[in-house]
Amino acid sequence: MKKIIFALLIISLAFTFGCKKKTGEETKTEKSGTTTTKGETKGVTGATDSELAFYPSNSTVVGNIDITAIKNIKGIKAILDAELPKVEKEIGLSFDKASAANFYATLKSMNEDPTGAVVVKNLDMTPVSKNAKKDETVDGVKIYHMDSESGFAVIDGDSIVGTIDAIKTTIKVKKGSEKNLASSSNNAIFKETLSKLGKTVFKVAFVPSSEFEAELKKLAEEQPMFASVINNFKAASFGVGIEGETLNFYFNAKSDKDSIKGLADMLNGQVTAMGGEIDNQLKGLEEIVEKDGVEMLSKAFKSLKIKAEGDYILVSFSVESKLLDKGAAMLPMLMGGGF
Q1: Does 192 fall in a domain?
Q2: Average pLDDT in the 291-316 region?
Q3: pLDDT confidence of residue 44
């Protein structure tokens, strides 16, 4: 079952390395009268209650991949055409109709193995059911055990892939017999941290459990420079969006207002101090990424923005997809042995 999750990762990694501007009719945006193409990110910022209802109430990590948007980007096809069929052939599944994946994990402490699942829309798992070690029925839904720890189930057209405990919990959430994240006390903070992202096709958020917060406070003792931020850490999120031929990366973290302002000031000071030397340092990479690659790296560094907004630090930067294309040839090597 790890290979099924791995296939989803290939889709998201292919997006990261290979996205380009999709050709098509241009449409107007509301910002500054600029024009964009249909290849632009169509995802919305934040998360709706219906989206958060995918997840159990005790989730500490949640995320979403817009598979359809990623697969329809023109430049991604070369990578998907080369790598995804290898996985599909080995595991006996086709991801042609898979449209979106919501994933979550529950991590109570730093030393505890997480439990989690991926809920994939329109992924037919029937072909691999014959390889199950055993099956059981929970709330009228059959769960297939593919090994001692993981398996899958299908409910309402959604395939749930993950650890057995997480699958059982997800079924109960979807059946309404167990509380979901949208109706929990953490609903507001997950929505808040996700709302700090720009438009995305991939996003993930983390809100620590009380046990995890206690462990962070111990960690803060070893990191005096960041102790205040760590002691008051409440949430974080990360997202990636597409705008024309540009990838936009977003990161934010929530702590107390004074600590956030101090952190933002310190980081901006370091960026300013590095600015005079960064071009010289980047020139050392010219043999690897060529001259135009160095120019794009420099442009990405100059696009870096760090600011304090209340009790959030907001970090963003943009990278031309052509720069990441230079790393696309490395993808088979990075994935070597994973199939």
Answers
A1: yes
A2: 92
A3: 47
